[in-house]
Design a protein that fits this description.
The chain is α+β, with helices and mostly antiparallel strands and 399 residues long. The protein has 2 domains: 16-116, 2-Layer Sandwich (Phosphorylase Kinase, domain 1); 122-398, Alpha-Beta Complex (Aminoglycoside 3'-phosphotransferase, Chain: A, domain 2). The protein is built from 17 helices and 12 strands. It has helices at residues 16-21, 24-27, 81-95, 124-129, 137-151, 159-168, 172-181, 185-188, 200-205, 209-224, 261-281, 284-290, 293-308, 320-347, 353-356, 360-380, 385-398, and strands at 36-39, 46-52, 58-64, 67-68, 72-76, 103-107, 112-116, 122-123, 228-230, 239-241, 247-249, 256-258. The two termini are 37 Å apart.
Length: 399
């Protein structure tokens, strides 16, 4: 990773109020005289401040650090990723405003996004880990992927304009993270991989030549197929849910023009992780419900794409028969990419609390179930969400 030459002032809880008062677009959102500021960032990259006043009004400030927070200043990393996230909120907000937080302002000099306070929601990963059900959330995320996957693609944007947008949204540093951590290192025995000793044999089984080749195929697709302006990091830790039904995707800094199936895949992969947790905890009822989420997300995506297809900008060749072939390709892409994302959650650098909070024996069993699912998804490349769910249930139950 190349060094990053960025010098700018970082926010601190004590300086947040002054920052808000100094910006006209933020000053009226909260009363800084009664402001309570909490740093709530638990991700790998950024500072995140929840700012709420005595009247209950709130705003969230997210500032990109010039290094990877997970590792520290020894891993410099461009804060210009905040520009990509602002682009995601602006562009996706045109077509699916109900599916993302509202962007109040973006400060490109200090890489700070001010977004809607969703503290009455909770992160979907935590809800699933606790065994909660949020019916309809998977379908809403599927429709979100379908809508932006149409509206920001050759189906919804004139060709020359689309090429200009693709060029403007290139994000090499963020893509490199995905290319390495998700699509390469779980299958290459990378030095920064880590896993339980009990998973040594299972982890090494991912380095079989046929699995490496499958990962290579998917990595090539990720690097070369600029299909639409995808979210790029749409796992269950990047989705907020509310008992009233609101479902929002956030943390769009990995947004770039890439394969649409990748967004669906990250949801599917993290459903696999939840299934593994449910299996070792004996949560059969919750596991049975989670197994329905694969099809629910897919059905939402397919229904949205079909509903928008009559407005395709170039119907000369993008006809109904092509739509069927397009759907088949996205299904197979999603199954493959789901495998790579699930693999990194067990053997890669960035693990998840769904598994890490389990007792040691249960965690190892869950990990084996996930790796078994990974192997089968890459080798069999199932052609439907139902098949993906069936494989995941079988392997996680066996783990």
């Amino acid at each position: 990773m190349t060094a990053v030459d960025e010098t700018y002032e970082l926010l601190e809880p004590e300086t947040v109020g002054r920052y808000i008062d100094a910006r006209d677009e933020l000053a009226g959102l909260v009363d800084t005289a009664t402001l309570d500021v909490q740093e709530i960032g638990d991700g790998n990259l950024n500072l995140v401040f929840l700012c709420r006043d005595a009247a209950g009004r709130g705003v969230v400030l997210k500032q990109a650090l010039p290094y990877v927070r997970l590792v520290g200043p020894s891993w410099p990393f461009t804060p210009r990723r905040a520009v990509a996230e602002a682009r995601a909120y602006a562009e996706h907000g045109k077509w699916a405003p109900e599916s993302i937080p509202k962007l109040h302002a973006f400060d490109p000099e200090r890489y700070i996004l001010a977004v809607e306070d969703l503290s009455d929601h909770r992160v979907w990963r935590g809800a699933l880990t606790d065994g909660e059900r949020h019916d309809g959330a998977a379908g809403k995320m599927g429709r979100y992927v379908g809508r932006v996957g149409f509206r920001t693609s050759p189906f919804g944007v004139e060709a020359k304009e689309l090429k200009r947008r693709v060029a403007a949204a290139i994000s090499p540093e963020l893509c490199e993270i995905t290319e390495d951590l998700v699509l390469t290192e779980p299958f290459s025995g990378a030095e920064r991989n880590w896993y339980q000793p009990e998973l040594e044999d299972a982890a090494k089984s991912l380095q079989a030549p046929e699995l490496i080749a499958a990962a290579g195929e998917l990595k090539h697709a990720f690097m070369t197929r600029a299909e639409a302006l995808i979210h790029g990091d749409l796992h269950t830790g990047s989705v907020m849910v509310h008992p009233g039904g609101s479902t929002r995707a956030f943390d769009g800094e990995f947004c770039f023009y890439g394969p649409v199936g990748f967004d669906l895949a990250l949801l599917w992969a993290n459903f696999v992780v939840t299934l593994a947790r449910d299996a070792v905890l004996g949560r059969d009822e919750h596991g049975a419900w989670v197994a329905t989420l694969f099809e629910e997300a897919w059905n939402g995506f397919e229904a949205e794409l079909r509903s928008l297809w009559p407005s395709v900008v170039d119907p000369r060749v993008f006809n109904e028969l092509y739509l069927e072939r397009r759907l088949e390709q996205v299904r197979r892409d999603a199954a493959g990419f789901a495998a790579t994302e699930a693999a990194r959650r067990v053997v890669g650098l960035a693990h998840v609390p769904d598994l890490e909070t389990l007792e040691e024996d249960a965690r190892a069993a869950a990990g084996r179930g996930v790796i078994g699912t990974v192997r089968r998804l890459l080798l069999e490349r199932p052609a439907s969400a139902a098949e993906v769910a069936a494989i995941a249930r079988e392997e996680t139950s066996r783990g």
